[in-house]
User: Which sequence fits this backbone?
């Protein structure tokens, strides 16, 4: 596995309504996409910073993973996402190296990406996401 770049950094927030204007005013970034991923009980807001994006995550339900995260650890960095080629191969490789997988096969994430998470217990406490943009593939 060789990540191409950091696709995005996911940040758990209590309120997009409060955090989006903060990123726009303080950092001068503009939110170009807001998307709900119902399956994950999350609403996401995206900003581009060069090749990397900031993904703000607000929970849409009290039992969603972001809600639980904030309850336990407060707002803050939630995960780091690497852009990879051939996500299936990367997952297989990680599995063979003894990394605990949250997703053993890729699923659909925000922005039309195929995504899969590696368990933070296996990655020094950092929830790690792999992303592949399959629309860019021939
Ligand atoms: Zn993400």
Assistant:
């Amino acid at each position: 596995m060789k990540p191409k770049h950091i696709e995005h950094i996911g940040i758990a927030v209590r309120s997009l309504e409060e955090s989006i204007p903060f990123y726009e005013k303080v950092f001068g970034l503009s939110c170009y996409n807001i998307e709900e991923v119902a399956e994950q009980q999350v609403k996401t807001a995206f900003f581009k910073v060069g090749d990397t994006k900031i993904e703000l995550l607000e929970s849409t339900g009290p039992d969603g993973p972001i809600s639980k995260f904030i309850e336990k650890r407060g707002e803050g960095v939630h995960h780091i996402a690497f852009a990879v080629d051939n996500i299936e191969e990367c997952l297989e490789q990680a599995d063979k190296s003894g990394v605990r997988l949250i997703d053993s096969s890729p699923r659909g994430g925000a922005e039309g990406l195929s995504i899969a998470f590696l368990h933070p217990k296996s990655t020094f406490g950092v929830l790690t996401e792999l992303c592949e943009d399959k629309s860019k593939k021939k």
Q: What stands out?
A: The domain at 5-136 is CATH 3.10.180.10 (2,3-Dihydroxybiphenyl 1,2-Dioxygenase; domain 1).
